[in-house]
Amino acid sequence: MDVFNKDLNLLLEDIAISNSLLENSEEYKNMYLGWLKVLENQHIEDINKNIDRYSNSIANFLYENISKVNKDLGNVIPKLKAFVHIGYELNNLLRRRIQHDGKVVHQENFTPHALCEIIDKACEISLEMIVLIENGFPYGANARWRTLFEYSVVAHVLSENNDDELTLMFLKHDIVTVKKVADSKNALEDKSNIPDFTEEYYNNVLDEYNLCITKYGKNFKNTYGWYKNNPCINFKDLCEKYGMAHRQQDVSLSHGFNHGSSVSISDKKYDKHKFELVTQNIAISLGFVLVTSLIYFLQKEENNSMRGYALSVALSSFVESIIEEVVDNVSLESAKTQGLKVKKL
Taking residues 43-51, what's their average pLDDT? Predict the structure, then answer.
């Protein structure tokens, strides 16, 4: 046992000796300061050696993974970044249509506003995933894909229904989470260190939450309580209802990465397929959000069905070109049938 670990174990033993030690803050403080003095005076060199060893180990891990990712996905990552850039540009274009052309989108129509917010978030999550992929973390990227996929489902639900009340319920549903956070903060005895948390703020949150429950019913507090046709629905059933149940296998796999399971612990080897899978998932899900939103907006315009179809086909082809970079022919056919289906306007 090296000196650092020995001293660490001694500290843990000292802390565990008696709860009374923790209750006597002065005595605990003296013990802690004494331990720090030992570290500073006698063993700083040993500690530095350990820190260097751990840092070098992490650096080597990152270097090896990044080198392999660059070799395997060096062509596709720039395409993915370009795809996200296209997403942001498309979103800016759609926002301008909302703001300046009242004939296309009426101000009281909430669906186009919601779709623009979803595109923005989908692009942001895609960038997060690309950063994780570039640095050799496919599990982290796949965990984030779970959220990206959920946004693609929500975009599909909102665009298919084109129901102002449903979309407004979706936009207001954040109050459920806001209330949960506010309740947990309000339960603390000492709230003085919580920034911007006042009794007035808490009461306003409660008022807004209660208004929503009164208007939409008690089931509004459920995870998908905003889906007024069935506020008790779960995500799996929502996917099935809107024809996206074929991705449930990938969602289940993502759960294994996202939760504290043994899946990612037991599998530490670099595997090109892990990176290919998550790269494909970005392309399909972000592409689905963009195409779904684009079709929705173009359907609002008269005499533009041919242009809308052409644009959606072009965007779909770009997605497929990204997928083609990272998967074999069998996987490509699977991706085409699973992910992006362009419908005529």
Answer: 60
The yes-or-no verdict on residue 8 having pLDDT over 60 is no
Same domain, 179 and 158: no
Report how far residue 151's alpha carbon sits from residue 163's, in angstroms, rounded to the nearest whole number: 17
Helix, coil or strand: residue 28: helix
Q: 208 lies in which domain range?
A: 174-224
Last residue of a domain, one of 72, 100, 127: 72
CB 151 within 8 A of CB 247: no
DSSP 49-66: HHHHHHHHHHHHHHHHHH
pLDDT at 330 over 90: no
Helix (H) or strand (E) holding 290: helix 272-299
Closest CA to 38 of 70, 16, 14: 14
In a domain, 167, yes or no: no
Asked whether the beta carbons of 310 and 343 are under 8 A apart, the reply is: no
Lowest mean pLDDT among 189-198, 209-218, 226-235: 189-198
Compute the distance between CA of residue 10 and CA of residue 154 in angstroms, rounded to an integer. Answer: 53
Three-state DSSP string of 159-208 = HHHCCHHHHHHHHHCHHHHHHHHHHHHHCCCCCCCCCCCCHHHHHHHHHH
When pLDDT is cut at 50, 70 and 90, the band that residue 9 belongs to is low
Alpha-carbon torsion 150, 120, 215, 218, what sign? positive
What share of residues in the chain are helix, strand, coil (percent, to 5)? 80, 0, 20
How far CA 10 is from CA of 4, 14, 28, 54, 107, in Å, comes to 10, 6, 14, 22, 67
DSSP string for 100-138: H-TTTS-TT--HHHHHHHHHHHHHHHHHHHHHHHHTT-H
> pTM of the predicted model, to two decimals?
0.73
Residue that finishes a domain, picked among 72, 92, 125: 72
> Which residues lie below 8 Å from residue 310, measured CB to CB, with a gap of 6+?
none
Verify that 55 and 186 share a domain, yes or no. no
